[in-house]
Amino acid sequence: MSIIKNEIRNCAKDKWNYVPLSEPIPITKQVWPKGTIPLVCIRTMTFMHENYVDDCISGILMQKTTFPVRVCIHDDASKDKTAELVRKYQAKYPNLIWAYFQNENSYRHPNRKAMRSKFWEFFKVGKYFALCEGDDYWTDPLKLQKQVEFLEENKDIAGVGCYYHIINQFGNDAVFQKLDNEPRFIRFKWDDYLKGGAPGIRTLTMVYRSDAVNRVNEKISFSPKLRSAGDVLLVSSILKSEGDLCLLPFFGAIYRKHDKGLSAGLKIKSKKRKQHFYNYEGIMRLVLSSKKEKIFFWYRNFKNTIKGDIAYFRIGQVIKDALLIFEK
Fold first, then answer.
1. What's the pLDDT tens digit per position in 62-74?
2. pLDDT value at position 167?
3. In the predicted model, what is the mean pLDDT of residues 312-321?
4. Which pLDDT belongs to residue 199?
């Protein structure tokens, strides 16, 4: 822990003490002087991902950069072989991969924040904060390099993502989906988000400025009841108070849909759907300040939910969801 404290002290002085490489090379082949602070920290959360985590970690390790990177992996007491696989990679790249293994699942634990506090220290030191959950993976080896270069050149941007593909749990090309046929640069502002959301801004593609994320986390009293609202809460909070978000015009990741995914059950199970709407109510309470903002956000949530029900021919669910929303 003394190493981490020294790193945080140096970061407070804005000392990412490294000399950039002349050209991007794989992060697994980089050798940095002792005490070098990572410019980018990657956060990966895993739980019961034994069928997917190899793809996730491989996609991270193939990244080519001119700057130092730290890979921070949190396993939430998986009962399958996820932790075993993570340990294998950690043993192979001990200076690159910092892994933390929970003895008890923290996701629904009332003391989740305290249980994860040591892990949070791993990636506080980076100037930039990248995310890729254990069941998703990156496909472009220059993903991080492109995003960090953009953020270095555009100081007013709080975070940047890229386009991604969607596949089902079996990797079946027959259901391979594209977010957009022709990727284009998009800049999202707070007003845009209120009216239409931020399509394309998804966890697995994002790189944020760490100071923006840290300030947001300090402001928000995160309730365990909002456990599955983390991504939307983060995006809405950053757009509200820290700056715009951008989408760069390249495909760089795979978002995997499967029956054990966090959001998979929200479309089916009533208890999880109630949790879904509670999340949005919580965001309205914690982030939105004016009546106008709340009306815009509520209407967008209502419209998108009903639209999804109709698209999947869940006519009965339309009525149930309408009632759930009006309860709020």
1. 999 999 999 999 9
2. 85
3. 50
4. 75
CB atoms closer than 10 angstroms to residue 104: 9
Burial class (CB in 10 A: 0-12, 13-18, 19+), 251: middle
Q: Which two tokens stand for residue 79?
A: 């009962």
Rounded Cα–Cα distance for residues 41 and 207 (Å):
9
The tokens for 21 are: 């490489």
Give dist(CA 25, CA 131) in Å, integer.
20
DSSP 182: S
> Of 16-20, 233-237, 253-257, which range is least confident?
233-237
Q: Average pLDDT over the chain, rounded to whole? A: 79
Domain boundaries, the chain: 2-257, 265-327
Task: Calculate helix-pair angle for 53-61, 82-92, nearest 10 degrees.
Answer: 20
Spell out the alpha helix ranges (H) of 161-290.
190-196, 210-219, 230-241, 270-286
Average pLDDT over residues 264-286: 49
Q: What average pLDDT score do residues 93-107 get?
A: 94
Query: At 159, is the secondary structure helix, strand, or coil?
Result: strand
- Give the CATH fold of the 2-257 domain: Spore Coat Polysaccharide Biosynthesis Protein SpsA; Chain A (3.90.550)
Residue with tokens 């990244």: 63
Distances (CA, A) of 315 to 61, 271, 307, 308: 45, 18, 10, 10
Q: What is the pLDDT of residue 268?
A: 43
Copy the structure tokens of residue 214.
């840290």
The residues pairing with 264 across neighbouring beta strands, listed in sequence order, are none
Could you identify the residue written with the tokens 């965001």?
283
